[in-house]
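Both lines are given unchanged directly below:

***
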Amino acid sequence: MDMEINFPGGKQVTSTYNGFTVATDLPKNEGGDGSAPAPFDLFLASIGTCAGVFVVFFCDSRKIPTVDIRIVLRFDRDKKSYLIKKIDIDIYLPPGFPDKYRKGGKIGTLFRC
């Protein structure tokens, strides 16, 4: 399979793969129009949604509803290079989530990466 990358204008870049097109743009303060998420923001979102798929599989295999579960990504940037140094993934569980599956350093967290 091929993924096609196109340049519709300005700082916009699109990716088409498997019947879906993903649009990106840079924020206005970086020379873009701000018409779509920045590529790196989508990269971070893909990490979070990938973790979310694992939560879905875990819960589905145990018949646990996922409707009130939420994931929060937190990342630290290096002050000089502005590169990301660390990403934390916290998964917050609702009341009633089975105690036998709770573990980690925080109440309401299934696991922490």
